Amino acid sequence: MHITWDELQTIEALVRLENLEAAARELSLRHSSVSRRIAGLESRLGAALFVRGPRLTPTELARQVAKRAEAMRDVAANIEFALRAHQRRRANRLIITTNDVLAPLLFQALANDAASQARVEVLISDTELSLGAGEVDLALRPSQDPSGVLMGKRLGALRLGVYRAPEAQPGWVMPSASLRARLSMRWWRHVPEDDGAAVTCSSLLGVRDACRAGFGRAVLPCFLAQHDAALRLEHELEGGPPLWLLSSASQKADRQLRAVCNALFATLRTIDGVFHT
């Protein structure tokens, strides 16, 4: 019988990760699609590949298939890396994603010659876009602990401070419930839940602009406010989120991408006042 490469990849990922949802994320599939793929393959084989229960337990047959598929995965990855490197050399293009708050840092780093030798496409999104060859090369984002499908360089913890305009109203500019719920912005714990604030904002840049206009104090990453003549630092805070420069673990053999990542990392680290020393 014929087994497709997609099916082999699915078996290998499930055996290696021992988790249906983790395998689905790595394969960029819904977990229901992975389940249907395995069920269809088992039906054609007339044999079970996994024992269903509290955990998905691979049978000996699945382990044998996965062991051989692992070697095939490495060969396929090397081929993909070579093709991707060839495409990048031809296009000389780098694709980086970040959010609108961190975009000024990224552009400041890209303005340095060491980090801007390639044509750069920057994708600005609050959604964490998937990284991978042919899609997005690098991501600048806050993260407590990047997942196993990502590799990266930790830039450091962002400096945070309480800022206000000189003639500001008492109280705080309030973050909206959705903004307060973001795991990458845990600093909102320093802001009271209900302060009777005149203004509530659903974006960090909106909070900063309301603070500049005098609607109250705000907790801000220092790089957003330290050079703003309209804002004064009351005091700094501990517990800023770690900032990472990330790429897909599937691209670890891409030397050109690694060199660009190292140069960009070094440039970001030199920007004054962004990270705790």
Question: Which secondary structure elements does this structure contain, and how are they paired or packed?
Answer:
Elements: H1 5-17, H2 20-27, H3 31-45, E1 50-51, E2 57-58, H4 60-91, E3 93-98, H5 103-110, E4 119-124, E5 138-142, E6 150-157, E7 160-164, E8 174-175, H6 177-180, E9 200-201, H7 204-212, E10 218-221, H8 222-225, E11 232-237, E12 242-248, H9 255-270
Parallel strand pairs: 3-4, 3-5, 8-9
Antiparallel strand pairs: 1-2, 5-12, 6-12, 7-10, 7-11
**Per the principal axes of the C-alpha atoms, what is the gross shape?**
elongated
What is the beta-strand fraction?
Answer: 15-25%
What structural class do you assign from the helix and strand content? alpha/beta
Number of strands: 12
> Which residue ranges are poorly predicted, with pLDDT under 50 across at least 5 consecutive positions?
none
Describe the protein's architecture and organization.
With 277 residues, the protein is of the alpha/beta class. Helix content is 39%, strand content 20%. The chain contains nine helices and twelve strands. The protein has helices at residues 5-17, 20-27, 31-45, 60-91, 103-110, 177-180, 204-212, 222-225, 255-270, and strands at 50-51, 57-58, 93-98, 119-124, 138-142, 150-157, 160-164, 174-175, 200-201, 218-221, 232-237, 242-248. The chain has a five-stranded mixed beta sheet. The chain is elongated. The mean pLDDT is 84.
In short:
The chain has 277 residues and is α/β, with parallel strands linked by helices. The chain contains nine helices and twelve strands.
